[in-house]
Amino acid sequence: MASEFKKKLFWRAVVAEFLATTLFVFISIGSALGFKYPVGNNQTAVQDNVKVSLAFGLSIATLAQSVGHISGAHLNPAVTLGLLLSCQISIFRALMYIIAQCVGAIVATAILSGITSSLTGNSLGRNDLADGVNSGQGLGIEIIGTLQLVLCVLATTDRRRRDLGGSAPLAIGLSVALGHLLAVSQGPSQMEIDYTGCGINPARSFGSAVITHNFSNHWIFWVGPFIGGALAVLIYDFILAPRSSDLTDRVKVWTSGQVEEYDLDADDINSRVEMKPK
Description:
The chain is mainly α. Helix content is 60%, strand content 0%.
């Protein structure tokens, strides 16, 4: 922990997570709010959910390409938890990343609140359960949506694979878009979203809840993604593609983050690279 704390590269990575999450939340939530303009228009506003899903996915892909070499471009506490459990980052780095992501989401949502202040009933993209969806069902949607995302992150950034071509950030961005195509759809009032609105990112959900002062069912959007991320690690690292690292190496990563196997510049075939194209 002390070794990372003293490094400028570490704090640059934390700043990168803050800035990238701020941009991600601003772009993605902004795309979901834009359909309500112009205010006072007599025509009925209809949300284009494909546009919103692509905005979420493409913003992740673009920002992962932009800051992936600096911080790994997690931009999501569930992804950070997954990489922590997969022994790719230290506990201290994971904690600082999650704080930076949450603060970035709050800042982005606050800016959007000012820009969209003329909208009535503005939820700022806050996640909640749709009518007819109970907490258990919503939790299941969040678990499955996050599981496929973190599984994609682990699989597309695994250097042991020699069959990958193209861009890992794009694949991960499409995974985010896929989750939104599942959980976001037009509700009966054309201003609501079915299921949960697709959290799969506790920081993004937290920003809207803080600025709107509404934490109704908010626990679902932390517990669900964290369970989904943990399940993805269990499935990939212990069932689909087991790793040979022993407990000593894992503990060393958690405490200091310094194990050659997980070095981004290592030549070891068993190492991984985060959010970085081959």
